[in-house]
Write a structure and sequence with these properties.
mainly alpha; DNA polymerase, domain 1
């Protein structure tokens, strides 16, 4: 006599699971979470070894004053980006992910931390430039207020 359920194939075990949205969510999470969470240490080690070492050599060949020049660093930076993507792909990780973000923040902090957004450091303009831009609107506001007060006090034959 055969045991109950012995005639079922391996795929039929899914039929024994309870049904509903919560079970579906658990199955999706069980399939996705290892790929998302399971590559942090492997990814960091691999991207440091294969990508960052090459990028560091490329940046060392440049004068540090050229690090902020996009024309001088774009090729190396593109190779770094592509390499980090290929490492994530090879390890079965999503790209970008939290580790990729952390990696690029560290790269930017080390190599591009002193670079301004437009290639020069931002600072306030001299007072000869900013003074007229501040004083002009203040004077116009005072003049318009005086004009409104003067017009309101002047009666033009109101009955």
């Amino acid at each position: 006599m055969a045991r109950p359920g012995a005639d079922r194939g391996p795929g039929s075990m899914l039929l024994l699971l309870p049904r509903g949205p919560s079970v579906l969510l658990l199955l999706v999470l069980a399939a996705v979470l290892p790929a998302v969470l399971g590559c942090s240490s492997e990814y960091s080690e691999a991207v440091d070894e294969f990508c960052l070492s090459r990028f560091s050599l490329d940046m060392e060949q440049l004068d540090p004053n050229q690090w902020c020049s996009w024309e001088d660093t774009v090729e190396s930076y593109s190779e770094l980006t592509n390499c980090s993507y290929l490492v994530a792909l090879r390890l079965g990780c999503f790209w970008p992910n939290r580790d990729v973000d952390r990696f690029f923040v560290d790269v930017h902090r080390k190599y591009f931390g002193d670079c301004a957004l437009i290639g020069r450091s931002l600072r306030d303009p001299p007072s000869e430039v900013s003074g007229p831009f501040i004083l002009g609107p203040v004077l116009v506001t005072l003049l318009m207020t005086a004009l409104v007060v003067w017009r309101s006090k002047r009666s033009e034959g109101i009955v």
